[in-house]
Fold this protein.
Amino acid sequence: MNATRMRHTLDTIAEMFPDARCELNHRNPFELTIAVLLSAQCTDETVNKVTAALFDKYRTPQDYLNVPLEELENDIRRIGLFRNKAANIQKLCRLVIDKHGGEIPREHEALTELPGVGRKTANVVVSNAFDVPAIAVDTHVERVSKRLGIAKPEDSVLEVEKKLMRKVPRNEWTITHHRLIFFGRYHCKAQNPKCEVCPLLENCKEGKARMKAAFKKKRSVTT
């Protein structure tokens, strides 16, 4: 995708979702880190329902270590992979206390050393909690980037991230991340995307093929 088309794509999505933002409820960097860790293979809506009570019960890293693992597991039981995530939360809290004075580190490299925190989670935390420009590639961002021709279908998540970083102005990285998520979550869905009303259909080979197939099916029914 050339620079002109990329600019048009970014501006169009910005017009569609001017209020795009992080939808995970949190009050500080620590809660955001926990929320993003919980969100892996789980919807933000479910995470917010669980953290509403979780963040009232546990305020500090030490609070998570003061209960048996089984109790924490039960507190997040509605979350997918809750056993593994509960174990990672306690390991993360121990490391945050022992190595970072009880505070979530601001450095990307230090964040990725925390149990359960990968590159995507670290990007979300540094950008939303510490205002460091970053583009976190989740399933929505990956799908939209590939459908719109920003990245190739065979690109890895890291390759998608690098291409977005090259093609999007650095000062727009964080907001573009949110807008691409909203575009993928509410418009360009994995199933039943809104191709028929998409202002960026021209960029999407998959969408054009889907619309062509729908047109042929409609014609066959009416003839």
Summary: The radius of gyration is 20 Å.
